[in-house]
# Entry
Amino acid sequence: MTRGPWHVAVLMGGWSAERPVSLMSGEGVAKALESRGHRVTRIDMDRDVAARLAETKADVVFNALHGVPGEDGTVQGMMDLMGLTYTHSGLATSVIAIDKQLTKQALVPHGIPMPGGHIVQSESLFEGDPLPRPYVLKPVNEGSSVGVAIVTAEGNYGNPIARDSVGPWQDFPELLAEPYIRGRELTTAVLGDEALLVTELRPKSGFYDFDAKYTDGMTEHVCPADIPDEITQACKALALRSHQLLGCKGASRSDFRWDDERGVEGLFLLEVNTQPGMTPLSLVPEQAAKLGIDYATLVETIVEEALAGARMPDRAGAKHG
# Structure
């Protein structure tokens, strides 16, 4: 596949909680493509997005949306119906990967270690704990650590959780409750069919939440991570296997917790991000750069894969075998 020049519609923004991140990702992608001589049309997604995409008549859509509805299969389904070629994962993969419970159902039977837990009604939290403390509560289908709460024995949410305590129970009718895994935060990017590196994330305070991810200076990135080789290899193998099982396309990023007192048995996959950030602080571009892949080349590689796969059957299908 030759490198253009192409006409690329960069789809970004939208109305999810991750809108600001998406705008940064999209603008970075657009500038990178323009620097390589490609024609770019920027589209800040609104309710008329289908008409705007149709008018653009681009060769390919770079999907730089994060969160719902850009990452959960909704926009993918729309573009499938329109016959558009687009980057990253298709409809079925996106539906499964955005939903943490569906992801477990797809991956755990294939030997991918993930935390236990179950979905709870938020109202039930005001009566008692769904799991022994400490435990984690998170929305079922949000990314970037939006709405994550760690409930500890001495935490300030109350015991049971108070109705007036600020937390995800005020914004979501149901939440995923998981046991809290002590230890370290690791992440591995996959590009095409290759796992890149392992990064350890060390927040300066608290945990790796939305602010820590996207505020410069709040989190130290150790890349490659200073961890035993068996953990590095396990992260890369699990990330690549999860990418393949879910049928991910383009780039994905798998996030892990590692209890370093338990060796490889303490490594757990938390989630697979099918449209990872492309901002200046984002982890996929950082790992690629460490391997000598500059940002513009990374973007072109993702677009090339989308164009190469445009004629292949089952563009939106997930692989569960």
Remarks:
- The longest strand covers residues 194-203.
